Amino acid sequence: MPTLSSLNLKDYRMLVYKLPLTDIITTNAYFYIDEKSLHGFLIDPGAQADKVIKIIQNNHWIIEKILLTHGHFDHIGAVQYLSSELRIPYFIHQNGLQYLTNPELNLSTLFSSPISLFEASYLNDNDVVPLNAAHSFSLRVIHCPGHTQDSVIYYDIQNSVAFSGDVIFQEGYGRTDLPGGNQQLLLQNIKYKILTLPSHTILYPGHGLSTTVEEQKKLYRF
């Protein structure tokens, strides 16, 4: 079921709307909305494009950009349709080119129809992605390879929110036995790039329930 949370911070109300989408695997898509302008981001729409569009229409949201935490099929499955239907760009880390364009790397040949995407815009570590309608509403790219070579989290430093994809979950971290995976590198990134964020930062993962940096610190003994 979709879940909704509003964050009262300073002069803003930031809306995080979690939408589990299912094809073969259930994956969390997220809307991150500036409630002043009703503009926002859509993160990791992996399936069920019609359901996504219905929610956008029902809430009168204007989605400016699709952001991808990495290029696995269960995070990108509805991207091509949504990008075309909404007439908006989609973004991924520059290492995502190889995943988006290779159905074997994005695993779509194993679990669904082959997916190849060729029109992405590419991001680098520490890039800031703003809303056009409210430039102070933005997400910073933190490159955290290890699950895949292109894995990132999207971090809002002002509001202590991070969308962590398959880097880290409430209980554990992403698989490292798939192409491009590296357990040692992933754990290093968790240690130095995630657990160093403010303890009250809320982590919204690609699967399962949300957690916080404080909760995660209790699980890792580096």
Description:
- This protein is an alpha/beta fold.
- The chain has a single domain, classed as Ribonuclease Z/Hydroxyacylglutathione hydrolase-like (Metallo-beta-lactamase, Chain A, 4-Layer Sandwich), CATH 3.60.15.
- It is 22% helix and 33% strand.
- It is built from seven helices and 15 strands.
- It has helices spanning 49-59, 73-76, 79-86, 97-100, 108-111, 183-194, 213-217, and strands spanning 3-9, 12-22, 26-34, 39-43, 62-67, 90-93, 121-123, 128-130, 138-143, 152-156, 161-165, 168-169, 172-173, 202-205, 211-212.
- The strands form three sheets. The protein has a seven-stranded mixed sheet with strand order 1-2-3-4-5-6-7, covered by helices on one side. It has a six-stranded mixed sheet with strand order 8-9-10-11-14-15. The chain has a two-stranded antiparallel ribbon with strand order 12-13.
- Strand 10 and strand 11 form a beta hairpin.
- The longest helix has 12 residues, at 183-194.
- It is globular.
